[in-house]
Amino acid sequence: MHEIALHDVAFSYGSQTIFEDINFTAYAGEFVCLLGPSGCGKSTLLRLLAGLGQPSSGRLTLDGSPITGPGLDRGVVFQDYSLFPWMTTGQNVVLALNQAFPGNSKAEQAETAQAYLEMVGLTDVFHKLPGALSGGMRQRAAIARAFAINSPVLLMDEPFGALDAITRARLQDLLLQLWQHNSAERKTVFFVTHDVEEAILLADRVVVMGVNPGSVRSVLEVDIPRPRRRQELYSDPAFAELRHKLIRELNADVLEKLNHGRTVQSAGEAI
Ligand SMILES: Nc1ncnc2c1ncn2[C@@H]1O[C@H](COP(=O)(O)OP(=O)(O)OP(=O)(O)O)[C@@H](O)[C@H]1O
After folding, report:
1. Are 92 and 150 in contact (CB under 8 A)?
2. Which atom of ligand 1 is nearest to the CA of 46?
3. Residues with Cβ < 8 Å from 131, sequence gap 6 or more?
4. 268, pLDDT greater than 70
5. Which ligand 1 atom is at minimum distance from the Cα of 194?
6. CATH architecture of 4-73+151-270
7. Is the CB of residue 125 below 6 angstroms from any atom belonging to ligand 1?
8. Fewer CB within 10 A of the end CB, N or C, for the chain?
9. Residue closest to 222 by CA, chosen among 236, 73, 54
10. Does the beta carbon of 74 sit less than 6 angstroms from any atom of ligand 1?
């Protein structure tokens, strides 16, 4: 089990409703991508799942128990502030291991940290500060840390959003390899992205959110067998069809306005 359920979840900042009526269940071992326009509340929803805030109403549960705060059962990887900059990369991973497995000796923890860093292709960074690594290397280290603590749930907020296309593709492949590695213990993943193709490559299901206020517009299944190989995927008609559907869903707000004869203001027009 590591099922995450959202029941009628709503969230407001003061009088501003960010999202409402969120109902969704991520099944154990499922890879779910959250896709939606800027401001629909994807990051806010992920923060609630991480236990870094409480919903204004509704319930979030993990295996039926309410999520009331952060916990080692949920690993978190954010876009660019995942590692403590004042600690070496190795110490960052050791710190997490120390919280997850406090009974293990320092030497064991350092060894495990090094092993996970190597698993993501970082052989020589243990004693380096995160600031001395490239963005891609920092995200590798953050992934190593998330997998090292072996939490059954992984929450990722645009982890590859700031990376160049090649690094991004490599890290997507790495993430899929790690996630698929042990099919009996697959993590339940929530992955926020703006990138339709990334969502199709990674997800079992894609949750598309609408905006003003945020809500679940649709949930699409990615019925493409795994392992998915990038080159084959791009020439698969199922990929093209799903990509088209997702883009249509994402643009639905704009299309609705146009259908009703209203002009869509371009950004900044009202200023
Ligand atoms: N601390 C805060 N106080 C008040 N409003 C906030 C705060 N954090 C976020 N918001 C607002 O909540 C809304 C949702 O923000 P959030 O970052 O969750 O959206 P998002 O879908 O992840 O956006 P993006 O794709 O641009 O990252 C936005 O309108 C944002 O301005």
Report:
1. no
2. 18
3. 85
4. no
5. 25
6. 3-Layer(aba) Sandwich (3.40)
7. no
8. C
9. 236
10. no
Contact 143, 175 (CB under 8 A): yes
Task: Show the tokens assigned to 101.
Answer: 């497995």
Query: Is 203:30 a contact under the CB 8 Å cutoff?
Result: no
| 99, two tokens | 């919280």
pLDDT tens figures, 70-79? 998 999 888 7
Would you state the torsion angle of the CA atoms of residues 22, 139, 154, 252, taken in this order, to the nearest 10 degrees? Answer: 20
d(CA 10, CA 215): 9
- CB crowding 26-60: b at 16 or more within 10 Å, else e: beebbbbbbbbbeebbbbbbbbbbbbeeebeebeb
Picking from 41, 92, 7, the residue whose alpha carbon sits closest to that of residue 213 is 41
Sequence letter at residue 66:
P
Q: Confirm or reject: Cβ of 183 under 6 Å from ligand 1.
A: no
User: Does 38 contact ligand 1 (Cβ within 6 A)?
Assistant: yes
Residue-wise pLDDT tens digits, 102-147: 999 999 999 999 999 998 889 999 999 999 998 888 988 988 898 8
Do residues 107 and 99 make contact, with C-beta atoms less than 8 angstroms apart? no
